[in-house]
Amino acid sequence: MLIDAPTLRHTAHLLTVDADWLVAQTEWLARSVDDLNATGFQGEAAEAAVSRLHALAQPMAVPPEQMLRVAQVLSMTAGLQAELDAAVHRAVALADRVAEDTPLVTLLLRDLRTLGDVLDWTCARQIDLLCTPIPVEAPTRLSDTPDLDLAAVHELNMLSTPVTGHGDLQILEAADARMVVAVGDLESAQSVTTMVAGVGSSDPAGLPVHLDRARTVAAATGGAAVVWLGYPAPESVPHALAQEPARAAGAELQAFQRELARRFPHQRRIVVGHSYGSVVAGTAASRGGGLYADDLVLIGSPGAGVTHAGQLTLLGDHPRIHAMTNPSDPIGLTVTQGAGVHGPDPTSPGFGARVWPGDSSGNHGTYWEDPEFLARLRDLTDQKKPMASSE
């Protein structure tokens, strides 16, 4: 719950008064110790005692300094909160004058309140930094801000990683070579599809393509979609032979899905791993603790980091593994039914996944344009709907 501007100013005033009192007491104590010599307290032992008393009193100067800094933070926050309060007041007055319920005014009020949440969180974090000797790292993962709703998380990430021209997305995580964004109303959606991208996905120039795919998936499933670029992806196909990026990324994906499950325990969760992203998703599901997903879909996969689907642990009511590779997808040249750098072909009969037939005219990048693929994703979002008989 936000604290109003007058309360913040009053608290800052009290801290300043108490800090001044502590400073006065510290100075009085120092003078009293110095005055011991005038009482006849002389000699080597007396000097050692006076020196020791000064050393013991020295830490008393730290709390007043911290209190004054905290008071400055509170005063600054109070000024910003007052401006937000005034903006909310003007927006409410505008809403009262509008005869109809205008969505624009509703969105404005929501955004202003969200900024208030961000201001509250930022103030608290700054106070922690002033009062905690251990450095506090800036939040880079969704789990780093468990008390903030997604709108506030988005505004906080926009401060450091602004993404313009895409008003329908929320930034959930942002850091160097990492970006996780949601399309659709993630907080109210019945299902969420996390899309794990592959080679070259860390290039910011490719973000619009990933967002368009997410919009397509969100529209097809009727839920939310997450573009998960939460790792430094291999830059090229030769670099994708390495397994270490998938191991590191698997831990990150596992943590992200766990936080989604904590925030929205009743959502249906689908993870789609494309290309090297399927290696990442498979690695996450084969790690200790498993992957919070009801369904794992491996498309255009060079392998899932395991030899059999039974080695993948999904944390869902009725977990299922699905695989699909278009016949014309060149990724098929890198993997066989029996072996591959990242394991056997997930569409091979011996792997144990539910195999979806690929598009005969499709290639490595056209899965998101395939109506049959999108329809099958839609099927996964409805637990009561039977799977197509071709499976």
Descriptive account of the structure:
With 391 residues, the protein is an alpha/beta fold. The chain folds into two domains: 127 residues; 215 residues, Rossmann fold (3-Layer(aba) Sandwich). 45% of the residues lie in helices and 11% in strands. The chain has nine helices and eight strands. The chain has an eight-stranded mixed beta sheet with strand order 1-2-4-3-5-6-7-8, sandwiched between helices. Strand 5, helix 8 and strand 6 form a beta-alpha-beta unit. Helix 3 packs antiparallel against helix 4. The C terminus is likely disordered.
CATH class of the largest domain: Alpha Beta
Give me the secondary-structure category: alpha/beta
At CATH level 3, the topology of the largest domain is Rossmann fold
Q: Determine Rg (CA atoms, Å).
A: 29 Å
Q: Could you name the CATH homologous superfamily of the largest domain?
A: Alpha/Beta hydrolase fold, catalytic domain
| CATH architecture identity of the largest domain | 3-Layer(aba) Sandwich
Largest sheet geometry: 8 strands, mixed
Q: How many alpha or pi helices?
A: 9
Shape: elongated
Q: Uncertain regions: pLDDT < 50 for 5+ in a row?
A: 384-391
Give a brief rundown of this model.
This protein is of the alpha/beta class and 391 residues long. It has helices at 5-34, 44-57, 62-97, 103-131, 150-160, 207-221, 244-263, 276-286, 371-380; strands at 169-175, 178-183, 191-196, 224-229, 268-274, 295-299, 320-324, 354-355. The protein folds into 2 domains: 5-131; 166-380, Rossmann fold.
